[in-house]
Amino acid sequence: MLTEKEPSRSRKARSAGQILGTNDKLDAIYERILAAVMEHRLIPGTKLVEEKLASVFHVNRTRIREVLSRLAYEGVVTTIPNRGAFVASPSVEEARHIFQARRIMEPALIRSLVDKGTDEDFQKLHAHVAEERDARERGDKRAVIRLSGEFHLLIAEMVASPPLIKLMRELSSLTCLIILLYDSPNVPACPNHEHTDIIAAMEEGNIEKAIALMIGHLDHIEATLDLSLPEDTEVDLEAIFG
Ligand SMILES: [Zn+2]
Q: How is domain 2-89 classified at the CATH fold level?
């Protein structure tokens, strides 16, 4: 029964795509807006005017709305009722609060992992850092930012209770967004060697060194961000995408 169902499901999916005829186009628009945000051609707080985007990309406003709601779901765009969609803009204060929370939380996670970590845990961390290195060598900046965040989450998942893991997940995705929005282009999110040094100190059982390295690492990420971007800047959407 299952093998008979599979083809009909995919036929249905294909025909839906054909009827809309726009899935590839929507993906392309999504990628171009996201790239513009990541490359700082669209900065936090920029208003994304539906009708202008519709005209630039030669689609109707409904399609633009679909793309914007996908970006909003991912936290890259904020929608304000009666005002429209804007590139998400965590304030400088919010960004600093997130790093402050991480500096309090992550040393405790390091301490637990030095106490309880198994060889298997450390192997997993090394494998993760190898993945980060691959993404960096491919020049896949978005994967680098995601994997950098996941390194910290992986540590939490090894030692923390569910509420702390949930908190770490939120802090980690907010940090990714802040890096997406405030990072200088071409500055790495988490330098690879810093993750490797933290693992090495934990493997040596040197808690104080591992904690000092982790705090230094978080300070370093915060310091590489440009948390002083101007707000409410007028931009010419046609010049950016036209
Ligand atoms: Zn890191």
A: Arc Repressor Mutant, subunit A (1.10.10)
Beta strands per DSSP E along the chain: 47-48, 77-80, 84-87
Is the C-alpha dihedral spanning 78, 83, 86, 89 positive or negative? negative
Cα(152) to centroid of ligand 1, in Å?
6
CA of 190 to the centre of ligand 1 (A): 4
**126 CA distance to ligand 1 centroid (A)?**
13
Q: How far is the CA of 87 from the centre of ligand 1 (A)?
A: 25
| Distance between Cα 41 and ligand 1 center (Å) | 26
Q: Where are the domains of the chain?
A: 2-89, 92-224
pLDDT at 113 over 70: yes
- Higher-pLDDT residue of 35, 223: 223
> In the predicted model, what is the mean pLDDT of residues 63-87?
87
